[in-house]
Design a protein that fits this description.
six-stranded parallel sheet, homodimer, about 45% helix, alpha/beta, three-stranded antiparallel sheet, 2 domains, TIM Barrel
Chain lengths: ~375, ~375
């Protein structure tokens, strides 16, 4: 057994569950911090484990370029290379190939692209991507997909979907052929852009392949908020209950709460860590930009209700000072707070689902968090 | 009682001791990491305390400019501003005013200088500097001095010395006037450039003022290594045994060992933390530049004999990867290692002085550390 639902909410589709992974069980809903190059920026693995975060996301595209598969193979995988003791989910690199590299060609066979680092030319088939994730030693793998931005034509969206489904099938076969000495779980990705019939068709084609888990891709990619909510609701309603559901690229409190309400079990996003490095932190009443002048003499912690190391030890004034003087400890302390804040939200979400209070909790949290906005 | 000698070596002037400070007793010899803006770069105070480092140096010049004395006064001192729980030694800003700011004028009255940050004009008298350190809440304060580079004329050196002695006297009177509600200990600074009779005269004039501790300034400022050793030996031999001796600006293993051999109790330097942020780390066989290609597949820790968190969890290859991908965790992990390495050296120095083995320890350490160099 790979996934088990623990408790289902009665008024929403929210649920708690557990993923049984090789490197420790993961309670869901779970937020995965992003460790692009194999390690979450500005925070140690120990600190994440102390917060009970034992699943992080890494980017296959970045790891393939640096340190490279040769190094990872020599080390026996990413965990022994980085020293991370928890689980790893890797994306397929599809999103990065389309957004970061200078893409040369997308063919049914695979993709040809140039590295965003040195311009070198690379070819990756869906099979290569599965094998790369095996070398990384991922506990959860993703299929290579074609992720498209909002605003493209129906025909372009349909073509991207067809290739995504074809690649999903080839990925599955490749993954099955590797199972003898590899226990990573492969997730299929639903695409279909912002066309409901394409979303439906994608769900059907992915479900037919019977992956251990299902991801929703191509949302939170720049579309309007209303469109996001609409497509999240629509797509997630088509998914079966017995498999874990992963919404890719979501990580603000508002979107996380919506995702959970729609029955999502997993999400990831660079947002909490990226804005932290820039001096913006979460509080129970919304985002706080630490560098602003009004923090200069503020003796309060970032959030009085927060029990993270940053809030227990440091004032807003001191954190502002760290950012103004460009001290490395600024990003470090802000990152620790932001991940702790999101993880605390996740823990409260789980607790309230288990108590049957999820909807009230969500409303109460957002009322304070968004204020009059 | 402020300082007590615990054990004196029989074949060198090395000694162990203890400083009784308000925020915890400090075992000597002690290395002070530098927290320029009130906090050691890229490492938390908790991590320092875990290594049993409970005395750090901060720069009065930098703190005066940022966050400014108004903020520090409002917070009741630097410790409550930063959350640091150990002791603080502050320099007087003299060295920084002469090296960083665009200096306008040095008069018997004090210094007039422009901030290196925004060019604003500032005037500081020796009394202002003592009062600034009281606002900072320093456990050990330094007098304002005139630090000069190697190569100046005898006359220039003598003039700088005269002003240093005059300022030392004024600092002492000011400090005495503040004693009712302030327990920080003021150290006088010996200058005299690279002229032995001036060094001797400076020692005499400083000793006459009977400060709780004596610092040797103006060494390790760019002079030849032989000159450094010569002037360290000469100056330290003139100091009395009952007061703590502080050699300013020293922090490589070779210089630390020499300082200890010459009876020095305290030293500080940015070297261990600065080179760490640039990817260079200490090993028992010398410095290791982590970014070099030859570390790419190196599965060994920085130093097999080191028990720091970085060495217990991470390989040279992974650390190289962090620096190549410009991850913040590169500087963080390298800093933790370098400070741990120096602190471990310090602990071994203390242990071997107490066992009567200092000279053998020094020779053995340097043989391995310097190799054939």
């Amino acid at each position: 057994m790979f996934f088990s639902v623990l408790k289902e909410d009665t008024t929403t589709r929210a649920r708690t569950g557990v993923l049984f992974l090789k490197n420790g069980n993961v309670l869901t809903p779970a937020f995965m911090p992003v460790g692009t190059y194999g390690t979450v920026k500005a925070i140690s693995g120990d600190a994440l484990l102390q917060m009970e975060i034992n699943l992080v996301l890494s980017n296959t595209y970045h790891l393939y370029l640096r340190p490279g598969l040769d190094t990872l193979e020599k080390f026996g995988g990413l965990r022994s290379f980085t020293g991370w003791k928890g689980n790893i989910l890797t994306d397929s690199g599809g999103y990065q190939i389309f957004s970061l590299s200078s893409l040369r060609k997308i063919e049914k066979e695979g993709v040809v692209f140039r590295s965003h680092i040195d311009g070198s030319l690379h070819t990756l088939s869906p099979e290569d991507v599965v094998k790369a994730q095996k070398i990384i030693g991922s506990d959860i793998l993703m299929t290579l997909d074609v992720c498209t931005p909002p605003g493209i034509s129906y025909r372009e969206a349909a073509e991207a979907l067809e290739i995504t489904s074809l690649w999903a099938k080839r990925s599955k076969y490749c993954w099955l052929s590797l199972q003898e000495d590899f226990k990573g779980q492969l997730f299929g990705i639903v695409q279909g852009n912002f066309f409901k019939d394409l979303r439906k068709r994608s769900v059907e084609e992915i479900l037919e392949l019977d992956f251990p888990g299902i991801a929703i891709g191509g949302l939170s990619v720049g579309e309007e908020q209303e469109v996001f909510y609409d497509y999240l609701n629509y797509t997630s309603s088509l998914l079966p209950g017995n498999k874990p559901r992963y919404l890719m690229g979501v990580g603000t409190p508002e979107y996380i709460l919506s995702a959970v309400e729609n029955g999502i079990d997993l999400f990831d996003c660079v947002f909490p860590t990226r804005v932290a490095r820039n001096g913006t932190v979460f509080t129970s009443t919304g985002l706080l930009p630490l560098k602003r002048e009004y923090n200069k003499h503020d003796m309060e912690p970032i959030d009085k209700e927060c029990n993270c190391r940053t809030c227990r030890n440091h004032s807003r004034a001191f954190l502002r000072h760290l950012f103004k003087t460009k001290e490395i400890m600024g990003p470090v302390l802000a990152t620790e707070h932001n991940i702790f804040f999101i993880q605390n939200l996740i823990k409260n979400i789980r607790k309230n689902i288990n108590l049957g209070n999820f909807r009230q909790f969500k409303e109460h949290f957002l009322q304070e968090y968004l204020g009059d906005k």
